[in-house]
Amino acid sequence: MSRPTARHGVGLSVFQRRPEVTGGLIGLVVVYAFFAYLGGSVFMQAPGWSSFLSVAAEVGIIALPVGLLMIAGELDISVGAILPAASLTTAVISGHYDLPTYMGIAGGLAVGVIVGYVNGLLVSRTKIPSLIITVGTMFGTMGLTLGLTIMIAGSTGVFMTPDPISKALLGQFIGGMFRVTMVWWVLFIVVVFYILHISPWGNWIFAVGGDPESARNAGIPTRRVTVGLYMLSGFAAAFVGVSQVITFQSAQVAAGQSFIFNSIMCVVIGGVLLTGGAGSVIGIVIGTLTFSIVNQGIFFSGLDPNYGSIIIGVLLLAAVLSNDTFRNIALRYGSKKS
Amino acid sequence: MSNQTPVIELRNVDKSFGPIDVLHEISLKVNAGEVLCLLGDNGAGKSTLIKTLAGVHSPTRGQILLDGKPMRFSRPKDAQEKGIATVHQFGGTFPLMTIGRSFFAGVEPTKGIWPFKVFDRSKANQIAVKAVQDFGITRIDDGDRLVGGLSGGERQSLAIARAVHFGARVLILDEPTAALGVKQAAHVLRIVNEAKRRGLAVIFITHQVMHAMAVGDHFAVLIRGAIAADFRKGEKSREEITDLMAGGETMSDLEAQIEGYMETHDGHPPQVASQSDA
């Protein structure tokens, strides 16, 4: 975090210490201005904001723990399968079997935590790259979801009617337009910010990503950190899945694939180092907003929506390149005096 | 000197991995305030010996004694808790973390009550900077600087200061000067002397005879897993030690080569450019 010390004051040093945030902010403003110009007043008013904030909230909830994992040096691809698995579990429990909604929600979230636990266990006990492991668990979860849903419900889509309290908490549209997920996103931001930047565990995450061997030597329980982070990302993906089924009252096996790359994209645009060891929650949030503005702004702009992918691709490359530069500035910071 | 109980002692330690014997009958003693230089060429078994001392491997046969009492370490953490700290070639620090954060990695100072514990950044920075400055590295004055922005020598110093701060009594330095230039290496050697002055038992692993002679009280040459020579300061010349390391036989050709190399490089390997030297 960019809390200034007494010695250096605010000024330039904050931007030198957290250069990726500065770069991210500039990118965010440029992208917003671009689409505000093309999309006109509709994009700048409630409809525009609600559309990109809805996208940002969903992908953002997943991007936060995926970002923590990336800071710890790991990837999680399985979020794309956990999301539909959780929404189907909720729908099967509360829709097909007609049990109370809270049981469905608990079941859905449990699926995410369990898959996360398996991921964490496999990643921390073997030397196989986490990319491969989570691709494996993604396919495993997807297959199980499909097979079990068809076996139990007889089709690949399941419907449910949530009780009013659950609907208000997870599936409401505030003002008829803004999904309640946005509030949850803010809560996730606060919690993850606390974990990474305020609590001592944040230090463990940075250390594990920076140099796992030294981290273990320093007495950090690296395995528990990894397992915990995977459980958190599983929980977050399941949370989005559950909130989707409560909002739309139906669950589909195929939902969720887009979240795999989108969450990673948000994290990388937000300045998290792909190889681990560096990143910030503010950066991830900025990356998520930038991504969502492009993702939705394209529909307001009158451009061919296919061009949206090009813009996201360019943004991603620009982010990675500029982050490298900024990081070097940060490394040099302070060494020039004396 | 002789009736002092060594801080750490190895008695006839063997280590084999399956059918392969890596260490044979290693016996060593290090007293408090003494530097033991462990010399040896690549593959001589230095790393296995360090790992055995640090609790990564446990000896196949033989004993490790700490303050005269036999010890058995099953995990590196056991050794650490007994005050045996290992500092690796690159300092074992985290390039993209701040000095304060990496200094306290795993043992973060906190304020506030559970579950709202807060990492006490200013305290961490203050202690870390003071610990490093006490070792004479006055250039480090801001705990918010990233470790990656320090020079190789400063990183080593930070790692050593960290180990000492957390109560190390035996300091194992694994080739701390290998990747450093002349000035940076001198820096680290001063830190080693400071650690010695503070009464630590230091085991200094190197294959640079000059560096060893600058700080060592006691030397052991390791060849193919066995101690080929064990002598005290001043008992052997640099040439003799180099010969020993090269395999024990006086190979005049090799010696000439080494001499030539030392001549042109002032007894050091080629200098590695470090970032903050700019």
List the helices and strands and how they pair.
The complex is a heterodimer of chains A (338) and B (278).
Chain A: H1 11-17, H2 19-44, H3 46-71, H4 79-96, H5 101-125, H6 130-153, E1 157-159, H7 164-170, E2 173-174, E3 178-179, H8 181-198, H9 200-210, H10 212-217, H11 222-248, E4 250-252, H12 258-269, H13 281-301, H14 306-332
Antiparallel strand pairs in A: 1-4, 2-3
Helix pairs in contact in A: 1-2, 2-13, 2-14, 3-8, 3-9, 3-11, 3-12, 3-13, 4-5, 4-6, 4-11, 5-6, 5-11, 8-9, 12-13, 13-14
Chain B: E1 8-17, E2 20-30, E3 34-40, H1 46-53, E4 61-66, E5 69-71, H2 76-81, E6 84-87, H3 99-103, E7 110-111, E8 118-119, H4 121-134, H5 152-165, E9 170-174, H6 182-197, E10 201-206, H7 209-215, E11 218-223, E12 226-232, H8 238-245, H9 252-265
Parallel strand pairs in B: 3-10, 3-11, 6-9, 9-10
Antiparallel strand pairs in B: 1-2, 1-4, 4-5, 7-8, 11-12
Describe this structure as you would to a colleague.
- The complex is a heterodimer of chains A (338) and B (278).
- Chain A has helices spanning 11-17, 19-44, 46-71, 79-96, 101-125, 130-153, 164-170, 181-198, 200-210, 212-217, 222-248, 258-269, 281-301, 306-332; strands spanning 157-159, 173-174, 178-179, 250-252.
- Chain A has 338 residues and is an all-alpha fold.
- Chain A has one domain (13-337): Orthogonal Bundle (ABC transporter involved in vitamin B12 uptake, BtuC), CATH 1.10.3470.
- Chain A has a two-stranded antiparallel sheet. In chain A, strands 2-3 form a two-stranded antiparallel sheet.
- The relative contact order of chain A is 0.20.
- Chain B is an alpha/beta fold.
- Chain B is globular.
- The model of chain B is unreliable at 269-278 (pLDDT under 50).
- Chain B has nine helices and twelve strands.
- In chain B, strand 7 and strand 8 form a beta hairpin.
- Chain A binds chain B through residues 3, 5, 7-8, 17, 198-200, 202-204, 206-207, 210-211, 213-220, 273, 277-278, 327, 330-335, 338, and chain B through 76-77, 80, 86, 88, 92-97, 101-102, 104-108, 110, 117-119, 121-122, 125, 139, 141-142, 144-146, 148-150, 275-276.
